[in-house]
Amino acid sequence: MKRKTITFFILLFVLCPLLFVYADPTNYTYNYDYWNEQVATPDAYRASVYLLGTTFGTSNLREPQGLYIRDNRIYICDSGNNRILLIEVDEDQNHNLVSIFSSVIIDGEESPFNFPSDLFEDRDGSIYIADTNNQRVLRLDSNWNHVSTILKPQDESFEEHLDFLPVKLVVDFAGRVFIQARNVNKGLLEFDSRGEFAGYMGANRVHVNIIDYVWKALSTQAQRERMDLFIPTEYSNVALDSEGFVYVTNNSGQTDPVRRLNAMGQDILIRNGYEPPVGDLAFGNAGGILGRSRFIDIVAFPNDSYACFDRTRGRIFLYDFQGNLLYAFGGIGNRDGYFRQPAALDRMGDVLYALDSGTASLTRFDLTGYGLMINNALNEYKAGRYEASAVVWEQVLKMNGNYDLAYIGIGRAALRQGDYQKAMRYYKLKHFRAGYGKAFQLYRKQWMEENLWKMLLGLTIIIVVPVVVKKSIKLIKEIREA
User: How many C-beta atoms lie closer than 10 Å to residue 195's C-beta?
Assistant: First the structure.
């Protein structure tokens, strides 16, 4: 009996760690340090709900492509089933299916959807649907009655042989419709509030390899015809922030995979982090997953932070308004919080919803206490409460002493408060050269203003005293000789 008891406790001692690891709810959250090495962090988000079509009492989703959230309403573009699901989240956080839309009435006749890929609800309740394979964008009123249809632009700038295949869209505060269409690399198609084609906005920049450029210049005409053209890449998605600016992503894997466009189509995204927002900085090619991060969707938060969804490795990257990586989580796999084929991303307040086309599912991610603290620090800073922001960052450091952005956040708050020496100290701890340089410049100016009178006094003494002493000695000598 005694031997059995000892054996039981030995097995318990061995198996407990395994049980603990198995029950660990982490979604593998990490960040990058100054040397571009991954550093594990506490979870900022955790998967809380996993939703399938059968969850709502309907058939399984099939190749869902679009996700849009307004208030407590979730729209899922169930593209493979040619339908759109409207789901509402109640006060108890239950997800209830309200309606299924598979067609629209136009001029008294039913017109079915054909692979609807995206949806946008305007502030006045109007619904815009990218009905891809029907080559149209539908505008409906809040009761889903047909208002108008946007068709292929009859313009010489839109190549005649191309089909009009709208994939993603947004509508800005002025009623302008911006459409990302397949096989269009001139930028977003812009339509005015009447549905008239107004041109293109914000084409991707062309990135040319100098070696390819020289080789092409030295090649024959026949060789040049077989080479790839130096043309812009098309966008992969488009989103609108709370200020009416348009965010776009491209999944080409080139530089600037995220851009923030103003009304003129100019990129105004701030990139002041260690590295620009490009996703993973260090990656391999194991398990058949090749290459760098390729963003396929983006969602903006009111505090100007934003989240990007990576198709390559199924990760969600969150950045602050300066382009600093807050944290990344997720991956490719079959466990909670992982994905097979990332499709779309949106938010309901601070809650994130991620659509997976591979598993035809929707995953909800809720903030942890750690993630909530980071959000609060950013919110306090954006509201101009710099001292309160620094206090929250101090709390973040207690939970994660290796979190570079907390040091930078405290330094940023100190800089705004005029405590330049403190800002320099915290920036230096994390090798944040851009911030340190700015703090040093301001500290030098402050020091000069505070000590200028001392310098002038010292300079005066250096110049005047020798002259006075010399004249005094000369005068004393003349008096003695007299």
Answer: 15
Provide the whole-model pTM. 0.85
Where in the sequence is the domain holding 446, given as residue range(s)?
Answer: 368-482
Tokens of 351: 């809650």
Residue 296 half-sphere exposure, CB side, CA atoms within 13 Å? 19
* 48-67 per-position pLDDT tens digit: 999 999 999 999 999 999 99
End-of-domain residue from the set 339, 365, 391: 365
DSSP annotation string for 387-441: HHHHHHHHHHHHH-TT-HHHHHHHHHHHHHHT-HHHHHHHHHHTT-HHHHHHHHH
- 414, 426 contact by CB (below 8 A): yes
**Structural contact between residues 200 and 269, judged by C-beta atoms closer than 8 angstroms:** no
Assigned token pair, 297 = 């969707």
Crossing angle (nearest 10°) for helices 369-382 and 386-399 = 160
pLDDT at residue 98 in the model? 96
Alpha carbon dihedral 86, 193, 344, 56, in 10-degree steps, equals 0
CATH of the domain at 434: 1.25.40.10
Task: Specify the number of domains making up the chain.
Answer: 2
Return the beta strands (E) in 357-439 as ranges: 361-367
* 77 CB-near residues (< 8 Å, 6+ apart): 64, 65, 66, 67, 84, 116, 117, 118, 119
Sequence-distant (6+) residues with CB within 8 A of 83 are: 100, 101, 102, 113, 116
SS3 (DSSP) at 370: helix
Which residues, in sequence order, are CB contacts of 98 under 8 Å at separation 6+? 73, 86, 87, 88
- What's the CA gap between 83 and 77, in Å, rounded? 6
Summarize pLDDT for 128-145 with one digit per residue, the tens: 999 999 999 999 999 999
**Considering the domain boundaries, does residue 39 fall inside one?**
no
What values do phi and psi take at 96, rounded to 5? -115, 130
What is the Cα–Cα distance from 207 to 468, expressed in whole angstroms? 69
Give the model's pLDDT for residue 207: 52
As a whole number of Å, the CA-based R_g of the chain is: 30
pLDDT value of position 4: 52
- pLDDT of residue 196 exceeding 50, the answer is yes
Q: Which of 31, 44, 47, 18 is nearest to 334 (CA)?
A: 47
